[in-house]
Amino acid sequence: MASPALQELEIDGYENFKSRIADLEKDSTKSPLFLLFTGSDNAQGQSWCPDCVVLEKTLKVLQSKNPLSGCLVRVKVGVRDYWKDKSCPFRTDPKLKLTSVPTLMAWGTPKRLSDESVNNLDNLSMLFEED
User: Fold this and answer.
1) In the prediction, which pLDDT does 55 show?
2) Which residues belong to the active site?
3) Measured between alpha carbons, how far is 105 from 83 in angstroms, rounded to an integer?
4) Sites in the chain below the pLDDT cut of 70
5) How would DSSP label each residue in 7-67?
6) Residue 35 near residue 105, CB atoms below 8 Å
7) Where are the domains of the chain?
8) pLDDT of residue 16
9) Which CATH number fits domain 6-128: 3.20.20.450, 3.30.1130.10, 3.40.30.10, 3.30.70.20?
10) In whole angstroms, what is the distance from residue 24 CA to residue 30 CA?
């Protein structure tokens, strides 16, 4: 039997994230749940974060080699100045504790990729593997 396709959603901003995450956690049809924290789009329609742009391309390569299943939620953390502020709620939230974008995590598990490790195909493949 084929695995269900990866469902993709987008959430813009911390308040929207906080209001939607509980529902996403409860919805068993969307598990496993993966969260990708990325810079918000600029006027050209791409993230202001160059590593986030590269990761989107890497994810497409991974999906073309190995269809993924679950739910991938892209969470836009805001404009660069908002993100860089040390009091940014994405940085201070005890469940998130983000230190960089992009950050990709399997929600509810210790699996998390950020910095240089996030754009590695082998690392991404392992994160998306079911235990």
Assistant:
1) 94
2) 49, 52
3) 18
4) 1-4, 28-30, 131
5) EEEEEESHHHHHHHHHHHHH-GGG-SEEEEEEPPB-TTSSBS-HHHHHHHHHHHHHHHHS-
6) yes
7) 6-128
8) 96
9) 3.40.30.10
10) 7
Q: Is 98 exposed, middle or buried (0-12, 13-18, 19+ CB in 10 A)?
A: buried
Output the CA–CA distances (angstroms, integers) from residue 117 to 10, 11, 121, in the order listed.
Answer: 23, 24, 9
pLDDT in tens, 97-119: 999 999 999 998 899 999 889 99
Q: Quick check: 72 and 78 in contact, CB under 8 A?
A: no
pLDDT, residue 70, reads 87
Q: Could you give the C-alpha distances from 33 to 86, 88, 121, in angstroms and in order?
A: 27, 23, 19
